[in-house]
Specification:
The structure is a single chain. This protein is of the alpha/beta class and 457 residues long. The chain has three domains: 130 residues, Rossmann fold (3-Layer(aba) Sandwich); 174 residues, pyruvate-formate lyase- activating enzyme, CATH 3.80.30.20; 67 residues, OB fold (Dihydrolipoamide Acetyltransferase, E2P) (Beta Barrel), CATH 2.40.50.140. It is 37% helix and 22% strand. The longest helix has 24 residues. Bound molecules: 5'-deoxyadenosine and iron/sulfur cluster (SF4).
């Protein structure tokens, strides 16, 4: 009988991708994914360390799992192994083992290819506990099994990991290590395989994806722009995206690719974090506000309909009212289609956590509210401006009601339509033109644009 595997994923898309790869690693030793922890023989918590109290949440989740495990044992339903993976595992390795004795395995993101062996060892010797947070010299990508489970119409493909930028607020350079780029040939093969499984849109993932510098089959170092143009040659691959980018690595060729590569979607997530030069310097971002404006200007010159998204941190140590106003001003000048925003939170071990001039919590909350009100206004205006337009939508998800489909517009807007269920089945997984009825705060609502299809529906 197959053993059951439950993976709970926190945080970013990279973790979602990693969770799928861990499932691939565990499949050959008999593990199948399940949707609940209760009936799992192995639970993996794939954690994120970026947010405040992330580790605390993991420890309370472990507490719940421990009780569940005891209940399983008492009911004679078997054992439950508990593994902690992801960035909390990497950052707190031994600490996790000390604070949570019920955890069997602590595995850092660079060691996932060894997870199968670890689980086997523990199944053979139930007393053992393993912590593996090494950055091995062999790369995980060379040793991971090929991706097996199809991802659907819209898929993710990790091409780069790690970060050498050391923004002073961020743990990623410590948890994910130095920048590493996968070779072009491996990425192309994985993309072709995904397309063979029905994928039409691929989002290339990396903590610093536009710092990509992988080896091509010609032995040269390739840039992200070169890689994108190469992948665009794959028949059946209709859409390409990439995330997350750093302004410092937005080179001219990558900007040009937005104008000359139609498969590259007109949407870019380009975190700026702050609009104040003083704060950007303190953050060690390596660019100022003018540099960001120039990039946006060049991008819009080659792709006028480009939608921009960003990340913002409010209340970074030493942020004054004027610094914050500068951020609001940047937002007004750029006009974002979408954004994520956070209150600064101290990450132990990062330089910014050492600053004495931390911003009071109440002030952070107040600034975040004002910032989000402005961003929400821009997002709604962007979506509302789509009303009455016909846009190509890739339907990659089903809605709650039968016949409901949810897809992505080129600008990554979630787009809802209602169809009769047979028609919905026929369109699921493909691109169709949608006439937008209205824009809502979080996306678009519309109906099929093709009159023939509408009458058939
Ligand atoms: N505090 C608040 N936000 C943070 N981020 C990263 N580290 C911190 C921190 N210490 C945000 C940044 C980054 C996003 C993924 O998370 O905006 O771009
Ligand atoms: Fe963190 Fe900065 Fe690297 Fe992004 S670029 S992962 S924010 S250190």
């Amino acid at each position: 009988m197959a053993r059951k595997l439950f993976i709970k994923t926190y945080g970013c898309q990279m973790n979602v991708y990693d969770s799928a790869r861990m499932a691939d690693v565990l499949a050959p030793i008999g593990f199948e994914r399940t949707d609940t922890a209760q009936d799992a023989d192995l639970v993996v918590l794939n954690t994120c360390h970026i947010r405040e109290r992330a580790a605390e949440k993991v420890y309370s989740e472990i507490g719940r799992l421990r009780l569940m495990r005891e209940a399983r044992r008492e009911a004679g339903e078997g054992d439950m192994l508990i593994a902690v993976a992801g960035c909390v595992a990497q950052a707190e390795g031994d600490e996790v083992r000390r604070r949570a004795p019920s955890v069997d395995i602590v595995v850092g993101p660079q060691a996932y290819h060894r997870l199968g062996g670890m689980v086997r060892r523990i199944l053979a010797d139930r007393g053992e506990r393993i912590v593996d947070t090494d950055f091995p010299t062999e790369t995980k990508f060379d040793s991971l099994p090929e991706q097996s489970a199809p991802q659907g119409a819209a898929a993710f493909l990790t091409i780069q990991e790690g970060c050498d930028k050391f923004c002073t607020f961020c743990v990623v350079p410590y948890t994910r290590g130095a920048e590493y780029s996968r070779p072009v040939g491996d990425i192309r093969n994985e993309a072709i395989k995904l397309v063979g499984q029905g994928t039409q849109e691929i989002t290339l993932l990396g903590q610093n994806v536009n710092a990509y510098h992988g080896v091509g089959e010609d032995g040269e170092t390739w840039t992200l722009a070169q890689l994108i143009r190469e992948l665009a040659k794959i028949d059946g691959l209709e859409r390409i995206r990439f995330t997350t980018s750093h302004p410092r690595d937005m080179d001219d060729d990558l900007i040009a690719a937005h104008g000359d590569t139609p498969k590259l979607m007109p949407y870019l997530h380009l975190p700026v974090q702050s609009g104040s030069d003083r704060i950007l310097k303190r953050m060690n971002r390596g660019h100022g506000r003018e540099a960001y404006f120039r990039i946006v200007e060049h991008l819009r010159a080659v792709r006028p309909d480009l939608a921009l998204s960003s990340d913002f941190i409010v209340g970074f140590p030493g942020e004054t009212d004027q610094d914050f106003e500068d951020t609001l001003d940047l937002i007004r000048q750029v006009n974002f289609a979408q954004a994520y925003s956070f209150k600064y939170s101290e990450r132990p071990g990062t330089p910014a956590a050492e600053h004495q001039d931390q911003v009071p919590e109440a002030m952070k909350s107040e600034r975040l509210q004002r910032l989000q009100a402005l961003l929400n206004e821009q997002q709604l205006a962007f979506n509302e401006a789509m009303a009455d337009r016909v846009v190509p939508v890739l339907f990659d998800r089903r809605g709650k009601k039968p016949g409901q489909l949810v897809g992505r517009s080129p600008w990554l807007q979630a787009t809802h339509i209602d169809l009769d269920p047979v028609r919905a089945d026929a369109l699921f997984g493909a691109v169709s033109d949608v006439r937008v009825a209205r824009g809502a705060p979080n996306g678009l609502v519309g109906s099929l644009a093709d009159p023939k299809q509408e009458s058939a529906a």
